[in-house]
Structures are given as C-alpha cells and as structure tokens.
Amino acid sequence: MPRVVQVGRACSSVLRRRHTLCGRPQDLPVFLTVHAASLLQTWFRCWVMCMALYFGVGAAWTYYAYFAFGDKLFKLGEIPTRLDIWEQIKVSFRGMPLYAMLPTITEYCVEQGWTLAYARVADVGLARYLLYFVLYMMSVEFFVYWQHRILHMGVGYSWLHVIHHKYNKGDQMSPFAGLAFHPLDGIMQALPYAWTLFYVPMHFLTHEMLLFFTSIWTTNIHDNLHAKIAPVMGAGYHTIHHVLYNYNYGHYFTFVDRLFGTLITPEELEARRSAERAAADAKAQ
Predict the structure, then answer these.
(1) pLDDT tier at 21 (50, 70, 90 boundaries)?
(2) Which of 246, 270, 250 is CA-nearest to residue 258?
(3) Using CA atoms, how far apart are residues 180 and 215, in angstroms rounded to an integer?
(4) How far is the C-alpha of 134 from the C-alpha of 116, rounded, in Å?
(5) Residue 137 CB contacts under 8 Å (≥ 6 apart), including other chains
C-alpha cells in the first residue's frame, strides 16, 4: 500500500475514533445521532474559536494601534471612526457561523480518510514534514491569489467582494475589517487550505493552526501600518489593494503577484505619485 495512503488512513483512524460513515439505509439513525452530533460539536468549537480570535486579537490590536500608540503611528484624521469599526464588527459577526463550517467539513473529510492529512510528524519524518509544508503553502498562496482575483471579476465582485471593499481608504480600515466579508467570499478565499489536503500530504494540526492563523494575519493587514518586510505582503501592500483594486491580491507573500504582474510595492507607489506631482508642478509653471 502506498505510504501516503497509509498515512492518510492512520490520520483518519486517530481523528475518527469510533465514527464510521455507513452507507446502508438502516444506518441513517446512526449517522443522525453520531455524525450529526459530532459535526455540530466541531462546528460550535470552530465558531467559538473564530469569535475568540477575532474579538481578542482585534481588540488588543485596536487598543495598542489606536489608543496606546495612536499618536505616534497615525497622523490626525487617519484613525477610523467608531462607526466604521462597528460596521465591520457587525458584518464579521454575521459571517462567522458560516466561516466555521469550512473547518468543520474539512475535519469530517479527514476523519473519513478522504484526504492525505496525517496525524503525527513521526508518520512521515521531519524532512518530509517540511517538504510537504512548503508544497502545501505554495498551493495555498497560488490559489488564494486566484480566488481573490476572481472575486474582483463580474458578479464575484458585485455580489460578494464589494461588501469588503466598502473600506477603501486608510482611515476606514481597521483590524476589525479583516473578516468583514460576505460569508461566501470569506469561505472562497479560505477554500485552498481545505482542498489542498486532497493532493498534498499535510500534518492535520498544522493545517488547522494555519487556517485559524489567517484570522490573525487578516487583522494585521488591515491596520494600515506599513512595515518593510518584503517579500511578506503586509498592511502597506494590502492598503494599496483596497485603494487601487487591481493590485496586490496575494496572501502572505508577494511572489504570485510578481509572477502575474499585479504587484505594486508601497515604495513604487510613492515614487509614482511623487513623479506625478512633479510633472503636475512642472506643467503648472
């Protein structure tokens, strides 16, 4: 039996414990009592975790960015209003029950042995763990970029993504804007974390930690504070995305935007604007 299949089945055995999907009609009550209860429990856990991360990290980030160090980090008028922040919280809160469905369904697929996820690093060894991690993240980066870019096309934008792009100025975005999406929009951008499990072996706990880390990362990239940490796509890059729309679609890194010609660095944008101002001044003279 191939090693990956063995590892995937081992993971499903560890996670599934006593639950097995039955295909016979008489087993429907078993599914409803055992599997449905397990799914509901998993969903509730993910929902609570999502809320705890969103409100905990968002509140801490907001306090330090706006109250503790706001006078040092922002100019007058650059801090978002309470009304903007409250609107972002409401949109995010409405979406969180649906956001929690993705890790719930993913975990169920892993329990059933349908993915290549594995339970222990020892199952594959440290070297292959690191190799699979890199391959997994490359797939996630590539497909998050394209999911995001598709959401800027046609009905993807007009029906879904436009809700998030209400916050298109630096003084409108806040750490609480990070999950302020239409629920389907947020799920679409997270889907690569789930579907990559079906063709790249991945340590399951690492997968779950990465999935929930995105809620921390998205808090960071909406705080409008630029740090020069290229090739990491920080808040400076994402602010440009909100202002110019058609650039900087990437997730954690800049390489996919660079590959497809949609990257603008904060320094490049500032140089472009300086050149435009100089040209306008020269024309006015």
Answers:
(1) very low
(2) 250
(3) 11
(4) 15
(5) 210, 252
Distance between CA 200 and CA 263 in Å, rounded?
27
How far is residue 115 CA from its own chain's centroid? Answer: 21
Is 121 within 8 Å of 201 (Cβ atoms)? no
Question: Is 208 within 8 Å of 120 (Cβ atoms)?
Answer: no
At a CB cut-off of 8 Å and minimum separation 6, what does 105 contact?
194
The CA-CA-CA angle for residues 64, 269, 85, to 5°, reads 30
Local structure of 76: helix, strand or coil = coil
Residue type, 2: P
Mean pLDDT of the region 191-220: 94
Query: Hey, how many other C-beta atoms are within 10 angstroms of the C-beta on 119?
Result: 18
What is the model's pTM? 0.85
First to last CA, the chain: 78
Give, as one character, the DSSP assignment of residue 203.
Answer: E
d(CA 98, CA 187): 8
Peptide bond into 192 cis (omega under 30): no
The string of DSSP letters for 204-233 reads: HHHHHHHHHHHHHHHHHTTS------TTB-
The distance of Cα 226 from the centroid of its chain, to the nearest Å, equals: 19
pLDDT digits (tens, 9 = 90+) for 121-152: 999 999 999 999 999 999 999 999 999 999 99
Q: Structure tokens of 69?
A: 């160090």
In a 3-state reduction of DSSP, which class is residue 153? coil
Dist. CA 94–CA 72, nearest whole Å: 33
